[in-house]
Structure formats: C-alpha cells, structure tokens
Amino acid sequence: MDRIAITGGFRLEGQLPISGAKNAALPLMCASLLTNGCLRLSNLPHLADIKTLKELLEGHGVATNVEDEGKDLSKGQTVSFTTEVITSTTAPYDIVRKMRASILVLGPLLAREGEATVSLPGGCAIGNRPIDLHLKGFEEMGATIELAEGYVRAVAPGGRLKGGLVEFPTVSVGATENILMAATLASGTTTIENAAREPEISDLANCLNAMGAKISGIGTRTLIVVGVDQLHSADYSVMPDRIEAGSYAVAAAMTRGELELIGNDLLDVLTGTVGVLKSAGLEFTQTDNGLLVKLGSDKVNGINVTTQPYPGFPTDMQAQVMAMMTLCDGASVINETIFENRFMHVPELTRMGADITVHGSTATVRGVDQLLGAPVMATDLRASMSLILAGLVADRQTFVNRIYHLDRGYERLVEKLSTCGAQIVREDGKGI
Ligand code: UD1
Question: Residue 171 Cα, ligand 1 centroid: separation in angstroms?
Fold first, then answer.
C-alpha cells in the first residue's frame, strides 16, 4: 500500500484548480442509463470512484468512450456514455461493496427496464447508512420490493413506474437523486417533498432536463417531475467540487497562506461552508478566475458549528474544519447530526497532539499551539483529508496510511498541493 509523507510548516501560495465534483459526477453517470442516446459528460474528475462506477455501468451495457483524457491539472476528462440496450439489470456485490453510491443505478434501471436487482451496499465506515428511504420512494411509485440473499429486487408492475407523492421523513441526498431519476420516465407526475437541496441535486436535475426530462422546483424542497416516454442525448459539464474547494480553503488558512481556488461560481456552491469559515476568520475575495482565500488574522477563531443538510454546514467538511480548530484561539464545539460515527479522525488527530473530547455526537476541540507529526491511519474520505491538513502544519513529518480513501475523492491531491508549496510526496509501497 502507498502512503503520503508530509513535512509540515510550509506556507501554501498560488493557484489551485478545483476539479469536477465527485458527488455530482456519480449520479450524472447513472443518468446515462435512462436513455438509448449518448450522454457526454465533461469536467469529470480522475478518481477511483469514477472508475468503479464506470466498471459497474459497463456491466449494465453502457459503452463508454473517453473523448478527452483531460491530462492537465485544470481540466477534467470528457467521457461519453451510450446505453443502446441494457444488457443486465443486476448490480453485483463485488462492485457495489466498493462504493455505496452504486445504489444510484437502481432508479434508472427500474425506470427503463421495469425491474432491477442491486446488491445491498452493506456497512460503511461512517455509520449504518441504510437505504430504506430509497426503497420507500420506489414503493410509492408502484414498485414491489423484495430483499433476498443480500440483494434488493425492485419490480414495476406492467413494466413502468407510476408518478406519485414521495415524501421523505428525513432529507437524503441519494434517495432524492434515485427517485428523481426514476420519476423522469414514470407515467404521470411525481412530487418529491422534503427533497435534498444540495447543489449536486440541481446539477443532476439540470442535466436530466437537458436530456428531455420535465423537472421543476429545482433547488427547492419540492421537486415536480412530469414523466416522459423517453430521454435523449445531451452534453453536460460537471459542477465544481465544493468539498474539495472548502478543504483547500482550510489548507490556505491553516498554513497562513493565500490560495486562489480556480473554478466557476465557487462562492455560490460554497453556501453553508463560507459563512462558517468566515466566522473562523477566513477571508474570501472573488477574482476573475475563482476565489482568493486567506486567513485575516494570526489565529483561527474558535467556533460552534453543527452539520446540517444544504444549505447548512456540510458533514463532508466537518473533519477538515475540526483539523483547523485544533489550532484555534480558545475552544470550538462541533456537533455532527448527519452520520452517527463520523468522528473517526479524532483519535488520529489526538495522536498528533490535538486536544479533543467527544460526547456522543459533540466534539469539543481546545486549540493547542502546535501539532506534532506522526504516522496516522486514514479511515474514510474526509477524515483522510483532515489528517493531510494537520500534516501540512505539524512539526516534522506526518505519514498518512490507507490513502486509497483519498484516491476515491481528491483528484491529484499531491500534485495540487506540491504546486502551491507543500512538501508532500506519495511513497509507493511504503504504507501499512
Ligand atoms: C451523500 C454524499 C456524502 C454526504 C451525504 C450527506 C454522495 C455520493 N455522497 O451521501 O458524501 O456525506 O450525502 O450530505 O453524494 N439515510 C437513511 N435512509 C436512507 C438514506 C439515508 O436513514 O435510505 C440517512 C443516512 O444514514 C444519513 C442521512 O440519512 O444519516 C443522510 O444520508 P444521505 O443524504 O442519503 O447520504 P448519501 O446520499 O449516502
């Protein structure tokens, strides 16, 4: 296994391109199953999760063609996805277990073929993460659901889902996406109440409309989808990754540096994150190419923050903000409301000298003067980034192990940070 070695204490400065959003790209790729036309997606990031989903889609009969490899740092790849015929409606355990987002093929397969069988994703490092809301939504659209041998089998009687009212008791990004995709080809109108409002959902809805879907209420709690008989080809560019942008904003502040994050409309997509980072003392200036970020004073301010669905502060930024708070002036309180087991970075940050106490879903972080380099273990994607951030400012060397988590969600991390002055290298085969 590889590891990342970081020598802390170097100020970050320069331009840092923000990649296409993983969490937007994954549902967009699944949307290609809804049409026998060609969905051409540009600004797709080079990430392990994108490869895994490509492999899964190919198993369903999707022909993929890389039209532009997007080799330089500022540009993603352009890939076309064409599904003339669905060759299999089964998503096997071998692939689904690698990536929970695989469940997003269920809605499109069920909508187009009238049936689908998808392995249950199983446990996950950041909590239980059930899929009951997805399944309840499909049932409200007339599907019958059976669970057997670790798989969920969904069937639409008569071969087509029916429009209906899908009212989510709690907000779920994935369930909203799955039902939204399925509803595009259902007969009649589907109303999704208490829909998630994350920008990635709007990105998906806009792409589906470009493919001929009839979705209104985009960006609100109520999505209305008038079903159509078929969708068609479209070209679509994936939105920028707001979590990557937020993570590097934190890196700029922690290293007392100044980074220009390159990307379109970054302030808009960072709603919910920018307010929290500003109260911690970060300053943001819009530039022609993106967003300039730096810390406005000598020390980060302690803050109280609670994770919430969009437009609140995202759970996917919690670990990174916690890493920043380990060096804050005074103390900070971080309350995690979305996932029950999302403090796994705490013991690793503590090994680096952080002062953090956890009671249930609340972490209290008391600022220390200096973090200390150490060998640490990444546990999930965002937790891994918190360790990289801590390593950037820690005394001496930090070795981050199990970096396959980072490969899932941060495109060319080592290259991007080195270009801006970090002392960071990937060491092949040296990890544990
Ligand atoms: C997506 C994101 C993930 C992010 C999360 C919350 C992708 C690929 N992943 O994950 O990075 O952290 O949103 O912003 O976009 N829940 C249920 N039943 C369900 C579905 C969800 O109880 O059927 C619960 C979950 O356990 C969790 C909460 O709802 O407590 C939110 O989960 P959800 O919004 O569905 O997250 P994901 O779509 O899995």
Answer: 8
Is 328 one of the annotated active-site residues of the chain? no
Quote the ligand 1 centre to 137 CA distance (angstroms).
Answer: 15
Pick 3-17+297-431's CATH classification: 3.40.190.10, 3.30.10.10, 3.10.100.10, 3.65.10.10.
3.65.10.10
The pLDDT score that the predictor gives to residue 429 is 85
Q: Is 259 helix (H, G, I), strand (E, B) or coil?
A: strand
For range 227-234, the mean pLDDT: 98
Question: Which comes out higher in pLDDT, residue 32 or 404?
Answer: 32
Residue nearest ligand 1's atom 24 by CA: 129
Nearest one of 209, 280, 242 to 34, comparing CA atoms? 209
- Is the pLDDT score of 123 beyond 60? no
CA end-to-end span of the chain = 6
- Tell me the C-alpha distance between 113 and 70, whole Å: 34
List 30, 38, 124, 328, catalytic entry: 124
Cα(173) to ligand 1 centroid in Å equals 6
Query: Best substitution site from 145, 320, 338 to test ligand 1's pocket, by max atoms within 8 Å of Cβ?
Result: 338
**pLDDT value at 122 more than 70:** no
State the average pLDDT over residues 80-101: 95
Q: Give CATH for domain 22-237.
A: 3.65.10.10
